[in-house]
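It is worth pausing here to work through a concrete case rather than discussing structure prediction in the abstract. The textbook approach is simple: state the sequence, then state the predicted structure, then interpret. We follow exactly that order.
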Amino acid sequence: PSFGTRQTLRRMREVSFMMHMGMSGMAALMELTNVLMENSLPVLLRSMPQYRKMMKIAADGKLDSAMLRELEELTGLGTDVLTGKFTRVSRFEGDAMEITDDARITPTDEWLGRGREATAFLSGLTPVTAGLRRMSMLNFATAWARAARKNDNPFSKIKLEQLGIDADMSTRIRSQILRHSTFKDREKTILESLNTKNWDEDVRDAFQV
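Step two, the predicted structure:
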């Protein structure tokens, strides 16, 4: 499609987002029960005390939790916010990621782009979604750490298949956790870090997916 067609469709997308997503953050809160009830009660009892750390921002803009920082870097949490920001430096369009001439980006395009960003934040969609993803990641890591100590799978066979993890990979993931993970307590119940940077690359890739 021509630049004019793509520009029109982009503007329609921005306007539609601002018109219909104003309450999306409240709607996203409905996923809270799914995030919590997906895991067993012992997993929740171990991970919930760390939820408060997700609200504490350090001076460098990162969460005051080594575990959460590691999971953010592992999964790329937050990159969608950066790639979704409007910028006049370059605009990428189409499957070929063609760079649009900045001179053709009008103040209207910029206003609509800023409006979409503001709607995402003020509606609560961006912070709620990011918060739920952090909770889910922390529960996921805690479930694996608990399963590793028990030498058992953290999830059912069907769910592991949905995650793309077979029996052999599950065993390897648990082995890497036992070998490299660190804990905050002597009983090894409160996970401090998975130290995934030291894992075998193929195992780390399977875990982060």
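Step three, interpretation. The chain has a mean pLDDT of 78. The beta strands are 91-93, 98-100, 182-183, 191-193.
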